[in-house]
Amino acid sequence: MTSSLETSNRRLVPDRRARPTPLWGTLRMRGRRCGFRREGERRNSYVDRLSIRVVLLSLSIVILSFLDAGFTLLHLELGGWEVNPLMRLALVSGIPFFLTVKICLTGVGVVFLAAHQNFRLSWVALRCVAAVYLWLLAYHIYLYGAGPP
Q1: Using an 8 Å Cβ cutoff, are 54 and 31 in contact?
Q2: 2 three-state secondary structure
Q3: What's the mean pLDDT when you consider all of the chain?
Q4: What confidence score (pLDDT) does residue 133 get?
Q5: What backbone torsions phi and psi does residue 37 show, to the nearest 5 degrees?
Q6: Could you give the CA distance from residue 50 to residue 33 in angstroms, rounded to a whole number?
Q7: How confident is the model at residue 123 (pLDDT cuts 50, 70, 90)?
Q8: How many angstroms separate the Cα of 9 from the Cα of each of 17, 18, 62, 108, 121?
Q9: CA-to-CA distance for 58 and 60, rounded, in angstroms?
Q10: Minimal CB count within 10 Å: which of 46, 52, 97, 112?
Q11: d(CA 30, CA 33)
Q12: What's the 3-state SS for 50-71?
């Protein structure tokens, strides 16, 4: 015979901690797990929510991508040319297609890297992408200040 205490302690829903969080669990924006209790659990694992630093870095990269696209179009109007062969091919199809491809490729890449926030390579890649976009923005400003080619 079971007592009422034993019955009240039984879970109606299986314990979610019994299995690790899947990759897509991070992108659902649900759940409470945003960290780990033990240091050894942190590496190469997924959590329910992205950290604030990953969200801010990801948003910065997307904003820098928008700025890069705008400066690229400005330079094209001034007689410049697109160095990236993939983006050059997208430009042949028109400006709306170019902007869509540019932002979507950057966005998908950033989402993928952000979902892997606890993987060392992903965190390094996010910082490198941000650094490259900052360098590109500085180069665009230099070219704009230098005048027409």
Answers
A1: no
A2: coil
A3: 79
A4: 96
A5: -80, -35
A6: 9
A7: confident
A8: 17, 17, 47, 43, 42
A9: 5
A10: 52
A11: 9
A12: CCHHHHHHHHHHHHHHHHHHHH
Q: How many CB atoms lie within 10 A of CB 13?
A: 5
pLDDT tens, residue by residue, 61-101: 999 999 999 999 998 988 888 888 999 999 999 999 999 99
Q: How confident is the model at residue 9 (pLDDT cuts 50, 70, 90)?
A: low
Long-range contacts of 132-137 (CB under 8 A, 24+ apart): 133/61, 133/64, 133/65, 133/68, 134/64, 136/64, 136/68, 137/64, 137/67, 137/68, 137/71
Integer Cα distance of 8 and 59 in angstroms? 45
Asked if 98 and 91 touch (Cβ cutoff 8 Å), the reply is: yes
